[in-house]
Amino acid sequence: MAAQVAGFAPDLNKRLPFDPEASKKLLAEAGYPQGFEVTMNCPNDRYVNDAAICQAVSANLARVGVKIKLEAETKGTYFPKILRRDTSFYMLGWTSSTVDAHNVLYSIMSSPGEGGRGQFNLGAYSNPKLDQLTDAIASETDPKKRNDMIHETVRIHEEDIGHIPLHQQALNWAAKKNIELVQLPGNEMVWKYISVK
User: Fold this and answer.
1) How far apart are CA 142 and CA 44, in angstroms?
2) Stated pTM of the model
3) What was the pLDDT predicted at 131?
């Protein structure tokens, strides 16, 4: 989650350390001392530098023995494929359309289920405690209690390594003196909020 999202937990906004030796040890403990091969699905026209990011991930994983067969393709074929869960390893970007943590918790981190729950949790990560907290967050009106519950869900997800966050995509905006606009936090450009002098 970006810092602008309600419920953002700055103390939990940390990347896992890059430690190839620890990775090799974990692979050996999991029964893959020589690594393994897996296909990674990636769009090449959806996010800034999406295919290049996937290539960098592939190169770093190769250092520990995980060989990636990279399938970078247009978003028109990529998204239908991954939404069918016809993938083992994939790249996904997410912007909270509500600018609230619940959107991320419900769509990405919750167990897949009815009503769109976990719709984009394509690896089917599941933790019943996280699901229970996500349900409670949806109706909690006390801001402190709600933020504490959000913090707990993010902590659970981080400890489980439910997903591997890579980076926050920067927003690129330009300005000109004769243009006034309201730039929304979701990076939408709504024409009715733009005036040219």
Assistant:
1) 42
2) 0.83
3) 98
Of all residues in the chain, what percent are helix, strand and coil, respectively (each to 5)? Answer: 40, 15, 45
DSSP 34-103: T-EEEEEEEESSSSTTHHHHHHHHHHHHHTTTEEEEEEEE-HHHHHHHHHTT--SSB------TTSBHHH
**What amino acid is encoded at 153 in this protein?**
T
Average pLDDT along the chain, 197 residues, taken 10 residues at a time: 88 89 96 96 94 96 96 97 94 88 96 94 96 97 97 96 87 82 75 89
Q: d(Cα 38, Cα 40) in Å, to the nearest integer? A: 6
DSSP 80-98: HHHHTT--SSB------TT
